[in-house]
Input
Amino acid sequence: MNAVAARADASTDAAVSDAANDARGEVTKVKGVTKATAAKAIKKGYYHFIVDIWITDLNATEFGIYKHTRNRAKSRQFTSDMDIFADVTEGGERTGLIGYREDTWKKGEANDKRLVFKLFTDNLNWRATMDLMIGRSLQSTIAARGEPVMVFSINTDQDDFVVYLERSANKWPFLPEHFGFFIPDADGQPIFYRLKRDFINLGGDYTLYDQQGKKIGHLDGKVFSIGGKWKGKVKVEHADRRLLTVLQFFSAMQVFNSDCRRYMRRLWRDIVKGKVKPKLDAQELDLYKNPRRVR
Output
């Protein structure tokens, strides 16, 4: 009887262990993320990541006379004016680098500046691009009678759909700003999200809501960091690579947020007064082309 009982106990323990392993396997499954990374990045039902802004260009990624040339050889997306200014950490490991096209933003003319972000892997292979859409941003800013509205397009290396991230024009003075976007699922069903800046925050904190208004994530800005740092978390059942990419871009964009608002407001004023004629870059115009046009 003791032998039978021992075998029964062993069988029960094995079943419990298998069930626990299966449960852990379900928890660590995040679409587009390796199981090893997800297992380390998930804590207490949330997927965690960090976007850390660098204060100088003296970093291992860019430092060196021929570094830019080697980086451009790895990816056509790494242009000659690309400035890497942030890295992404997931599960304690660096999984990405974020840069922007410095010349098109800092050296552009008053009426044709462009803000373009790119996300690379740690090996500098391109993963995604986020563009400030000047045309759509101006369209919405004019409709909002001068309240600056920024519209960003985000496209990645693995998805068929472009994600549009937009600042809401429904903004009262001294009240928090909101951003909205949606991501189509595998069946083409849109899933809507909203980012709201926390009413009381020191470092640029935002809460992520789903389309039912439930809190499903948070971006915690660290005001006392040197360059800037955002600790992000998303509930596991909502986390996938596309949503994480949007949030990582959004975190890195915060160091440009005020400049973007000022630029859109100034451009709106100059257009209304007839001082400038708006210009759109050829690359942005490509994003507006009719996909059903005769070619």
